[in-house]
Fold this sequence. Notes:
Blueprint: E1 3-6, E2 12-15, H1 25-32, E3 36-41, E4 44-49, H2 61-67, E5 75-79
Antiparallel strand pairs: 1-2, 1-5, 3-4, 4-5
Amino acid sequence: MKATLLKTDGKREIITPKNGRSFVLEELQNLVGGYIEVINIGKQIMVINEEGRIERLHVNRAASGIAGFEIVGDVLIGNRDIVR
Length: 84
């Protein structure tokens, strides 16, 4: 299973879970830089840093455009089965 990491600097990176099936909590926390929050966006999900605003992370323009509201920090986006 693959997902896309949308970085605040505009870069995109295809990410595969270490176990090849789904991301575990520690992986998700490392990717977004802290505690996670999962947002449903239709058939996909976004995994964001739950404390991104408190930490004053930069706006993620790509993720914000997809979600329809302002998202901060690096974001992992993919099908619902990317997380367990």
